[in-house]
């Protein structure tokens, strides 16, 4: 059994399945997805449904799932819907509204139950998985950004694996310009720009925690 992490696939369903194939993800493996399955890409709702049905997969809440929940909550203010739409949620909403009322209710219930952080022990190391940054503040766990050079591990954590911040912001690029996983002081950034459709050298990264091998699509 192997343990994998990826983050921020943002509706790029083909890349998601391609990177799982590259990693040889199997039915006995575990996959932790650190949020932002939806928005920007062309198949957000389809990918969300794939993820929720995938055996061995654990989805964490990202800021885009949070925006969707806030926008579609009963008596939600119009500003919540505008915020979501301005952050790539318009196409997601249009596709969501084509689902049956029952299926829409099921998806929102699933999103509402998602954790926003997860601790696990793999190969004698304790990993803290989070979308934004490790914090006692739930807002920062979704929206915060890890600063280059900062060791933001909480007590008892050997390493933090996070998404949300594209690794090109840490100058984590190969010579050909493709994004790669970034490693800092006890922190590992794995958002390699998937969903930023205007950036041709974006990739979806997947990290195997047992041996730190990297896979890309």
Automatic annotation (TrEMBL):
The EC number on file is 3.6.1.41
Q: Name one GO cellular component term.
A: cytoplasm
Q: Which GO terms describe its biological process?
A: RNA decapping
Could you list this entry's UniProt keywords, alphabetically sorted.
Hydrolase
Gene3D superfamilies from the entry? 3.60.21.10
PROSITE patterns (UniProt xref): SER_THR_PHOSPHATASE
Q: Which Pfam families match?
A: Metallophos
List each copy of the Serine/threonine specific protein phosphatases domain by range: 60-65
Alphabetically, the GO molecular function entries are:
bis(5'-nucleosyl)-tetraphosphatase (symmetrical) activity; phosphatase activity
Q: Which PANTHER family match?
A: METALLOPHOSPHOESTERASE (PTHR42850), ZINC-DEPENDENT ENDOPOLYPHOSPHATASE (PTHR42850:SF4)
Annotated protein name in UniProt: Bis(5'-nucleosyl)-tetraphosphatase, symmetrical
User: What is the species of this protein?
Assistant: bioreactor metagenome
Lineage of this protein's species? unclassified sequences, metagenomes, ecological metagenomes
Please state the gene responsible for encoding this protein.
apaH_2
